[in-house]
Amino acid sequence: MKEKKKQIYCDFNPDRILIVTYYNKLMVLYCPFPLRFNKNIKKFKKGQVVQAKKVGLCTKGTYVFFIDTFWFHYYHFEILCYNL
């Protein structure tokens, strides 16, 4: 008996990110987009709003964002979407 394989669609682009809003609406955010830090890291303070210039993927498949001259993992900040 043959097993059916799931098809997984993966779209990666360093200039945008796909997000799902609280209202289950799919949105595309194009770089630069605003982020707010959850804690103090390097020269950035908790609550500081910055712009993500690029989006990247780690070897484990998690997203990283380029801010100023540093790459940060997604869990260091909140993505701010103003037009829901």
The proportion of strand residues reads: 35-45%
Unreliable stretches (pLDDT < 50, length at least 5) are: none
- Span from first to last CA? 46 Å
Q: Number of helical runs?
A: 0
Helix/sheet category: mainly beta
> How many strands in all?
8
Give the integer mean of the pLDDT values.
Answer: 83
- Main β-sheet description: 3 strands, antiparallel
User: Over all CA atoms, what is the radius of gyration?
Assistant: 15 Å
**Share of helix among residues?**
under 10%
Order of helices and strands: EEEEEEEE
Looking at the structure, what is the overall shape? globular
For the record, the count of structural domains works out to 1
Across the major sheet, the strand order is 4-3-8
Your description of this structure?
With 84 residues, the protein is an all-beta fold. It has one domain (16-79). It is 0% helix and 42% strand. The strands form 3 sheets. It has a 3-stranded antiparallel sheet, with no helix packed on it. A 3-stranded antiparallel sheet has the order 5-6-7, with no helix packed on it. A hairpin with a 2-residue loop joins strand 6 (63-67) and strand 7. The termini are far apart.
